[in-house]
Design a protein that fits this description.
The protein has 230 residues and is α/β, with parallel strands linked by helices. The protein has helices at residues 15-18, 21-29, 65-76, 102-109, 147-158, 170-173, 208-226; strands at residues 2-8, 32-38, 51-52, 62-63, 88-99, 113-117, 134-137, 193-194, 197-198.
Amino acid sequence: MLKISVISVQPKMFEGFLTESIVARAVKKGACEIDIVDLREFGEGRWRKVDDKPYGGGPGMLMKCGPWFAAVESVLGDRTADGGDRKTRVVMTSPAGRKFTQRDAEELAQAEHVVFMCGHYEGFDARIETLATDLFSVGDFVMTGGELAAAAMVDATVRLIPGVLGGGPAATASESFGRDGLLEAPQYTKPPEFRGMKVPEVLLSGDHAKIESWKKSEARRLTELRRPDL
């Protein structure tokens, strides 16, 4: 079973996320365990301080080493996270990280323990990066914290755990960003015509070979049109 630990200075941001939809179902089914850790429990001094002014000046506050090292080491326990066996992963959310992809989600879904470190304020003291096995970004933009990025990565990972989605392996076999690298072909449901827009005849034909050929052709066309970079 995959264990996911999320360390954040704003743990309440995850309350709704963990009680709704696929992630909640996965936890209820015992497919994964998710633990939300409040970084302030490891804060320093009377006020549980987790940030301070950056050396050399500059705007904002940086997250301090002490609380982060204590939190990650507490969560890992006797485990190590050197990235060697890929079973224990520590993910730092960072605009400077590698862009998170479906391949990364597949790898995380096969791990035994994944720890997400949610940045906040002006960012991390650079030494905290030594705790991480992976630095991931969800896009070329900056947010006020790493909580939403971590939530997105948790969702993308959990849905790939066997048994979480209905329909078995077929549920994720032909999705966008699959092994063929293409976007998913367009899909339709009832009614067969809506406001003059008709479902392609081939999908109503019952000819599975032709339908499969159409889906492959449409996937290539859509990818060339919308994501030629793929």
